[in-house]
Design a protein that fits this description.
single chain, 308 residues, Spore Coat Polysaccharide Biosynthesis Protein SpsA, Chain A, eight-stranded mixed sheet
Length: 308
């Protein structure tokens, strides 16, 4: 098997026919040895029936159906675990990941690159809030994380067999593919593209809070810097408190009138309380991820397999 395509899906019955029409044609121009794996969270629409209908006409189309909804990151990892290709490509079904890029990705892989990620030239069409969150998140992650994650990238990427083998051997429970690929390393390059709008419907994965959660995984799962920052803020706040106490004592000994009263104390107490809550929140983010890891629950549970 030369190429495996891994496609996480949930409520995508309208996008699947057009996706397959374009992808199969492009893949057949590259090789006839390929498979398309749909990793499906149980969907209330006809997503499963649509996939099976196309599979009845083309046995290279395969299906993984999970016992419940595990989310896009776990669906992608499940597809990687079942993929047999020498090169594995993760992409979305809504055609915002243009199938036409597959040819360029395979060419780069044949040149010797182990990872070829699709990188957007810009984020045109997204809300200003999502652009702000994404831009800030990428800058922050690359400033403090142990690995570098290219900006304006998603999970749309080609990975060589040895990269996929390393990824599925990892024990992380978060499924942050961009970070895991960066940890693995090897030769990596990009292909640039302009992201088109969805072919049909609204997105079911990675809305605002989902994107925020992914950003937190990038920060807390690949760096301890937030803990260091919390400690630094603690020392700064404590130093400010000692300075304030020394100033108050000096005024008292000199018999001078104290220039601040209850409002100032309320502001200071609120400030100190805020710093404490932020620090506890940072600790909670790390502890929560430790809790998820030590439970060692399955990342996904497969209910049905077709084509494996």
């Amino acid at each position: 098997m030369l190429i495996s395509i891994v496609v996480p899906v949930y409520k995508e019955e309208k996008n699947i026919p057009e996706f397959l029409s374009r992808v199969v044609k492009i893949l057949e121009g590259i090789t006839r040895e390929f498979e398309i794996i749909f990793s499906m969270d149980p969907s209330p629409d006809r997503t499963e029936e649509t996939i099976l209908d196309h599979r009845s006409r083309d046995q290279r189309i395969k299906l993984l159906k999970f016992s419940r909804r595990f989310g896009q990151p776990m669906a992608t990892l499940a597809g990687l675990q079942h993929a047999r290709g020498d090169a594995v490509i993760a992409m979305d079904v809504d055609l915002q990941d243009p199938p036409e890029l597959l040819t360029d990705m395979v060419e780069k892989w044949r040149e010797g690159y182990d990872v070829v990620y699709a990188q957007r030239r810009g984020r045109k069409g997204e809300t200003w809030l999502k652009r702000l969150v994404a831009g800030t998140g990428y800058r922050l992650i690359n400033k403090i994380a142990d690995v570098k994650i290219p900006p304006n990238t998603g999970d749309f990427r080609l990975m060589s067999r040895r990269v996929v083998d390393e990824i599925i051997s990892m024990k992380e429970a978060h499924g942050f593919l961009r970070g895991m690929v960066a940890v693995v390393g090897f030769r990596q390059t990009s292909v640039l593209f302009d992201r088109p709008p969805r072919f049909e419907g609204a997105g079911n994965y990675n809305r605002f809070f989902g994107s925020l959660r992914i950003g937190f995984n990038g920060i807390f799962c690949f760096s301890n810097y937030a803990l260091t920052l919390s400690t630094i803020f603690g020392f700064i706040t404590a130093g400010f408190s000692f300075l304030l106490m020394a100033t108050y004592l000096f005024y008292k000994l000199m018999g001078w009138q104290i220039l601040w009263g209850n409002p100032t104390l309320v502001i200071l107490i609120s400030f100190l309380g805020g710093i404490q809550l932020i620090s506890v929140g940072i600790l909670g983010e790390y502890i929560g991820r430790i809790y998820e890891e030590v439970k060692n629950r399955p990342k996904f549970i497969v209910d049905r397999k077709e084509g494996f």
